[in-house]
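re: ur question from the group chat, yeah i did fold both. here u go
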Amino acid sequence: MQLRNQQSATESYAKLASKNTNSYLVDVRSSQEWQNDGVADLSNNQEKVILCEWRRYPSMELNEDFFSKLTEKLILSKVDDLYFICAAGVRSQEAADFTDRRLKDLDFSIRCINIFDGFNGNTNSFFNLKKSNGWKASGLPCCQLKQPINKN
């Protein structure tokens, strides 16, 4: 697992919320998590939020169709950055690394960035800081899905 191209949820939101960017948020959590915890809300840029499971619920096995499902939702030649988010930053790192390798194989130079603190955050106990972070804890906009996810 590579640990480069890391950003916090707050840093990532600043870029994603801009209308002058060709960046997308790829939420790799499970459909169950999207339903239960909600999703990022980019308001007028909601088409820039892509829901694509990295691991399938409930087995949490890798989604073999991940890359094809992701790329069918994008015009790759017009994408600058992909920001990957999961609950706490682990699955999103796996998905970002995998996607980065596949894109390089196809000669695309799209930056794949992991949101290291995730949607739900994680507790930073380094030096006993016990600081909460993540998309929700940082007060970034999120919303509940209006309808259930249809599984193919």
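okk and heres the other one u asked abt
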Amino acid sequence: MNTLKTSKRAAIIAALVEDNSIRATCRMVGVAKNTVLKLLVDVGRACRAYQRKHLRNLPCRRLQCDEIWTFVYAKARNVPPAKLFEPGVGDAWTWVAIDAVAEFRQAVTIAPDNAVAHYNLSVALSKLGRTEEAAAEYREAVRLQQANNAARRTREQSDRPGRPEDQP
């Protein structure tokens, strides 16, 4: 049995994570479709084992729950009668639970000038009773929003024709 080199496995996973299709990944990396599918099964099993072992007694106190919908082969309404009862065909759902504070902290880290991210973090912290942290994030959101408004006014004024002293 052939075994993929680690670099080839990494290239396949990287391509898939970057939202490439399985067929595009096969062409990009130079492997067969079944190779990619088998690797996905292996990675899924490894992720499940890791999560079952390490994701225990997490300190999450407020979760944001959501679902992700997709389809396999075809949307449920478009599945042909011959494949109607075939397992793994049709609608597919994934349910997720995300720690709200951690999610908004990531948003603030990625976009520190985003007033909405700071505001959302302040709301999540407030609902957990962490009022001092919530107040600090709220103040930052207000400061950023005021800066955004000032920048918008300056841009609008510079876009107007005429001399600056003629502006209202």
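fwiw on the second one: The chain has two domains: 1-56, 59-161. The domain at 1-56 is CATH 1.10.10 (Arc Repressor Mutant, subunit A). idk if thats what u expected
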